[in-house]
Design brief:
heterodimer, A: 295 residues, mainly alpha, MetI-like fold, two-stranded antiparallel sheet, 12 helices, B: 291 residues, 2 domains, 0% strand
């Protein structure tokens, strides 16, 4: 059914509009302001034009190299995390019972990691991954692996991936499970009549029906991994060296640590623009799927 | 669709009866997999709880799977220390404020987005969502300047308003999914019965999406409770959130693992309580009301 055109609906959207304007756009303007100026301390600013942006996007400058390095780290991290979490989440969601009394408590247990403040998650894993007092670290060391989060770059990187998988696979599970439950029983009965194998049922019924939910999953997970901050900040502090210095961590280091407001602001804007572009692509896919469904 | 043809049931039975052993293995394996996953999920949490019940000397001396001399000493310490208790109250206050603001503002907006076309609706919706995707780190510095300039720095209001950045879009998105589940005929019937819009919205519409409001409130609570980067950037002493006191106690007392673990366990409790109330709706809520 076509929605009626009613511009008075703006009145109902106005509170949200003002609120988000207040909390997003106004502060963002200060970033734009900083990104075009240079400061010599003492609140003295002078016009710098697009200088910061040109430095940032030129890998031969110091800040440019740093930015490129952090960006590629972010992208590879997002890719690895998604490749593990999405299949794992779908697999676990398939093993959950479709109904019954166990479902409620099971879902609560699965959702629990998402309700823990992010720096507590960092602390928890900081303890858990230590070789002397943590089970995870002790077990890996016991297996003869050279595992040390604070000194070994590979250990640090893998630990951040493990934490992210532990923390966020539940989101994939819950979303997929909701999608699975929305599939009418008739589809499964038809599959049984055709004596379809479990795999055939999955690929021909469940996966196509999950399409829309999976787009949301990938979008949310990509964005969250792309802006990861707290866990590496607490567990590795971005180290060893710059092994786990993701974009957010680098940005906060430059902005609040070195107080290089100009470069930090330029970096913020480019960073934001990248997420916005990717978000737009996913959003378009989502609305296309919606339209195809109702067409 | 429960009563399909008996012949179909027969076919099912036949296809299933072929190898009982294979079927049993088929049923057992997923359960085993699920159990292993749940175990892996719970292990770090169990470890934290176990640490919180042990003394630091005990923690550093042996790697024990369970606390041999469990004590609640660290919990007593935290609950009797005014800094910790105050910080816990602060955290709950800004989370509650933010939840109320977000849900209240999002309700009419979600209705408008679902029921009407208006100029710029698609762009506005995307703009809202894009804030959900904005890295908090990008906002840390401008928020600091902004809230400092308007005199809200180091108050619960600063954090409550800052968290609106992502919670208002979340609330609009989830609620819109739930609003879509209410047939439009109800709106029209209420209009025919002479209900004014505000009266219709509060007396008829809200009760219909009560589940959605509950789920949305839960999500706002959750996202505000777990977010720490903005919460710590926007506060200094008076409105320092609980988890920030935690990271502060790091440097002061060297490494008091046991205390840190106890504080960590305490931060899990509010979330665990709140989620219990919406356990039957979380799946749909996590799908943002979209299935």
């Amino acid at each position: 059914m076509e929605k009626p055109l009613n511009n008075r609906a703006w009145l109902m959207v106005a509170p949200v509009f003002v609120l988000v304007l207040f909390s997003a756009l106004l502060p963002m303007m200060t970033v734009v302001n900083y990104s075009l100026q240079d400061s010599m301390g003492q609140n003295q600013f002078f016009w710098n034009g697009d200088g910061w942006f040109r430095d940032l996007l030129n890998p031969s400058t110091e800040i440019g190299a740093r930015f490129q390095d952090a960006l590629s780290k972010n992208l590879s991290f997002s890719l690895v995390a998604l490749l593990i979490e999405v299949p794992l989440g779908i697999a676990v969601a398939l093993t959950l019972p479709r109904g019954g009394r166990a479902v409620g408590p099971l879902l609560v247990i699965i959702a629990l990691p998402m309700l823990i403040p992010w720096n507590v998650i960092g602390t928890m894993w900081q303890i858990f991954s230590r070789a002397d007092i943590g089970l995870f670290g002790a077990a890996l060391t016991g297996l003869g692996l050279h595992y040390n989060v604070t000194q070994n770059a590979i250990s640090a990187w893998c630990t951040i991936v493990v934490i992210d998988v532990w923390h966020w696979t539940p989101l994939v599970i819950l979303l997929t499970y909701a999608g699975l439950r929305a599939i009418p029983d008739a589809f499964y009965q038809a599959a049984r009549i055709d004596a379809a194998s479990r795999w055939a049922t999955f690929f021909n019924i469940e996966l196509p029906k999950l399409q829309k939910v999976l787009v949301i999953v990938v979008l949310l997970r990509f964005m969250q991994t792309f802006m990861i901050y707290t866990e590496p900040f607490v567990v590795t502090g971005g180290g060893p060296g710059s092994a786990t210095t993701f974009l957010s961590i680098d940005l906060v280091k430059i902005a609040l640590g070195q107080v290089d407001l100009g470069p930090a602001a330029a970096m913020s804007l480019v960073y934001n623009l990248i997420t916005l572009t990717i978000c737009w692509i996913f959003f378009t896919i989502m609305t296309q799927l919606d339209r195809r469904r109702y067409a | 669709m429960a009563d399909v043809l008996p012949s179909a049931e027969l076919a099912v039975a036949r296809s299933r009866s072929q190898s009982p052993a294979a079927r049993r293995a088929h049923g057992l394996l997923p359960k085993l997999g699920l159990a292993v996953y749940l175990l892996a999920l719970m292990l770090p949490i169990y470890w934290l709880v176990s640490m919180s019940l042990r003394s630091n000397e005990d923690i550093m001396s042996t790697l024990a799977f369970w606390p041999h001399h469990p004590s609640l000493q660290k919990y007593y310490y935290i609950l009797n220390d005014s800094t910790w208790v105050h910080a816990f109250g602060v955290s709950l206050t800004y989370v509650a404020l933010n939840t109320v603001i977000s849900v209240t503002a999002a309700l009419p907006a979600a209705y408008a987005f679902n029921r009407f076309h208006f100029i710029g609706d698609k762009y506005l919706f995307f703009w809202l969502l894009s804030n959900l995707m904005a890295p908090a780190a990008v906002y840390a510095m401008p928020f600091f300047n902004f809230y400092y300039a308007i005199g809200l720095f180091d108050t619960v209001w600063a954090v409550a308003l800052a968290h609106c950045l992502f919670n208002v879009p979340v609330a609009v998105w989830i609620l819109e999914g739930f609003v879509a589940g209410v047939p439009r005929e109800i709106d029209e019937m209420a209009a025919i019965d002479g209900y004014s819009f505000p009266r219709f919205f509060i007396r008829i519409f809200l009760p219909l999406i009560a589940n959605g409001v509950g789920v949305t409130a839960f999500f706002c609570f959750m996202f505000s409770w777990v977010e720490q980067l903005l919460a710590t950037t926007l506060t200094a002493t008076d409105a320092l959130p609980f988890a920030a006191v935690m990271s502060r106690s790091y440097s002061v007392s060297g490494m008091d693992w046991s205390l840190l673990a106890a504080a960590g366990v305490l931060t899990m409790i509010p979330g665990a309580i709140v989620i219990w109330f919406v356990r039957n709706h979380i799946a749909k809520g996590f799908a943002l009301g979209r299935v």
